[in-house]
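QA checklist item 7 of 12: single-chain prediction sanity check.
[x] sequence parsed
[x] length recorded as 481
[x] structure emitted
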Amino acid sequence: MRRSIQFLTIMLFLFSGVHMVNAAEKEERQWQDESMYYIMVDRFMNGDSENDSNIDTKNPKAYHGGDIKGVIEQLDYIKEMGFTSIILSPIMENEEGGFHGFWINDYRAVEENFGTIEDAERLVKEAHERDIKVVFDIVVTHTSPNHPWVQENSGWYTGSQETTGGLSSLPQLDTDNREVQEYFTETAKWWIQQTNVDGFHLQGTPGDSFVESFSTSLSEVKEDVLIMTKGTSNVEGGDNVSYTLPDYSTEAAEAFQSPDNELGNFSESDNMKNHYIDMPLTDRLTRLAVEEGENPVTRWKLALTHLFTYPGIPVTVYGTELPLDEGKEMENGQMMSFKGGNAEVGQIVEKLNSVRQEFPALARGSYKELYNDNGMTLYERQLEDQTLVVAINNSSQTRSAELTHLPDDQQLRGLMQDGLIHQSEDGSYRVGMDRETSDIFVVEENQGWNWLFIGFVGGVLLLFVIAIIALSIKSKRNAGN
């Protein structure tokens, strides 16, 4: 009896998890398939006490102890969340007090508070062993105020200063200067040779000539190297360049910080672009939601659904899974907590990463807006025979929308909430969503009732009933003796 129950239970589990999906076949992994996790090294994890001489956790403008070894220790944690790449804030040698990494003094040395070049090499190696790619931040538009170039190579500067937040008053480099371009290209090659890093995230907004020269030259050294940068132009031969989607962070944060805000349809939908909601030097969505008197967990569920399903490479800033509450200034960065936080947000991150990896249409497919009104948004991602519909109800009321373009005799199966939508008698598909909820639906052939599955459920229940009756009879007999 016990073996029969175990067998049927196993079969029940297997059948309940199997869905017939005509998914597009997965091809060799490309950069557009990545899901990235941005790490501010100093505020992530302290893995080496030997470089803690300058830390002061009570001073928001001081080093707090995070280092490269700390990142290595948490690679499994990052892997478990489903991320396939990490971006590290600048690890180059900084001027005193440059805990954030943006006051660089030496581009070809590791900041001693973060570790050594050997640590950086080991990080890349261990990440690759877990099938995680590594991208280094590199600041190319400014230097620290006391950098030797200020005196020795004054022609490398524009004469102006950076004006953005914590980067204000920093001398601005002329990225159109050929010598500046050559220096950074050779520096990036040095980092590739020393660590085998997979790509670079250019901090600042360098000119097109810089990006073209930088990306072309590095491709000759490492064919699949990734270059991430801000800007709106596509450079010649820039297949390995991922531009940050303009205004996405600002518009998405404004839309999702409170209900009843309409999400605009962004003018560009390129699967190789990258996009953030939280970014360095911006208020976290958690902070914006709290200021609006909203539950940040609810807000993040909606925002993350959009982040992971909109065309482009999603970048999630460390601590989103908790979620951390920070202001825009660098010194507001909090130390990561690996023991606290809200489990719901972490679970939604894991689920979205899993869905994105399972359905290539979310990474490579076309994009089409289907409905956008008063906070309710529906859009379609399609690749070959794979079609998904994303529904986000950023409204304070239950909303619905009718889809009339889908073929007959289909069903929409929810991947986040396990809902199921069948075709109505008038031929449409009515997508109804509770207030402040979202789901991703895979469009598939109508499978009707799964009688095999129902039969197994009935069989298991019947066996349990029989087992309980048998145990009851046996118990009574024992009591009678």
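[x] summary fact logged: DSSP finds 13 helices and 20 strands in the chain.
[ ] second reviewer sign-off
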